[in-house]
Specification:
- The chain is an alpha+beta fold and about 100 residues long.
- It has one domain: Orthogonal Bundle (Arc Repressor Mutant, subunit A), CATH 1.10.10.10.
- About 50% of the residues lie in helices and about 20% in strands.
- A three-stranded antiparallel β-sheet has the order 1-3-2.
- A hairpin with a 2-residue loop joins strand 2 and strand 3.
- The longest helix has 17 residues.
- The chain is elongated.
- The relative contact order is 0.21.
- The model has no long low-confidence stretch (mean pLDDT about 95).
């Protein structure tokens, strides 16, 4: 059963990133950092890994004169994350009520 788990989400940071992004349209770097309680470098490396495999889309722009980097899940990323959650649920035995 564990072969259905997605190794891309083994890290608690990546799992947290996807959990935030899957329920939001775009989330900026500062907000993700705040929500997850991680360093800039740690967050950036995990986001880069998710971007490389096509699970996260990056948008760089200026708001006024300040640079802003935001992220959202791709269709493939959202699908992969939901499949991962489904696989976790299958591992948890259900008790009849």
């Amino acid at each position: 059963m564990i072969e259905q788990l997605n190794k891309a989400f083994d890290s608690r940071v990546r799992l947290g990133i996807m959990a935030v992004l899957v329920v939001n349209e775009w989330v900026d770097h500062a907000r993700l950092k705040e929500l997850l309680g991680v360093t800039d470098g740690n967050l950036a490396s995990h986001l880069a890994a998710l971007e490389v495999i096509g699970y996260v889309q990056v948008r760089k722009r200026f708001i006024g004169k300040r640079p802003n980097t935001s992220y959202k899940t791709t269709v493939a990323g959202g699908r992969a994350f939901r499949q991962h959650l489904d696989a976790i649920e299958k591992l948890i035995p259900r008790k009849d009520v």
